[in-house]
Amino acid sequence: DAKYNGMENSRKDGPTVEYATLQNGRKMPMLGYGTIGQAGEQITDNVAFALHHGYELIDTANRYGNEVEVGQGLKKSGLKREDYFLETKLGPTLYENETAIDGTLQRLDVDTIDLMILHHPVNNYLHAYGMLEKAYKAGKLRAIGVSNFPVEKLQELLDHCEIPPMVMQVEGHPYYPAEAVKAFCDAHHIVLQCWYPLGHGSSELLQDPVIGEIAQAHGKSPAQVVLRWHIQMGFCPVPGSKSPAHIQENGEIFDFSLSQEDMGRMAALNRHTPFYKVTPESLQRLATTKCNFEE
Q1: Known catalytic residue: 64?
Q2: CA of 203: how far to CAs of 16, 36, 250, in Å?
């Protein structure tokens, strides 16, 4: 696609992207672009756009039903394979499907995935994690982890696994800084990624007067301040957006930093409760809802 020809270095001119170091020594970009809820040409274009506007990590999932289009967006960017970090999640209905990881590689049209995680702590997750370990040893996956696991299930996994999870993706933002799992993950060197980093699509967080004041003082938007807070907390935010203007804005967070006073004011916003409530019904739905490519 001519649109990005000759633009390979367009993202190298700005401030440096920041990285987290995983247990195995691999570097993971702290800011990711989340692709949930997008399909078709829109997500292909947005993935290519994001890779030229501050993002080096693209996050998708079997369950999102858009891995083929995400893979096309990676190609459309014109970037070499080593210049972006690709993450996806194994769908719970595939936790005992021995061909699921190879099928994922085929849909994304890549030889290796930088990070694959289990999407939810349901079904036979210990078996599924064993499949991740096997693919990791075979060189198909460069890092492995989980998503949405409570501490007791993380401990169970650590007791049974050979290769400990390197990353966990959970809900996190200033109103709920992943406090149920943060201390445990820090103690076990599990890097935390945050979905809904801007507050679950709720306008409330981005309209918070404290965040507004900090944003004004830095000449930044409230979203940029919240994403910068994530980086300085050691979280790896994965904001999604359909709008190129918002994608670009969310990527411009490496040219300023928040003061200790700013961080202290934002710490006081903690409401100690997540937006997303896990219920037996929600877990049952997550355990049984098939991916769009399944029979």
Answers
A1: yes
A2: 29, 18, 15
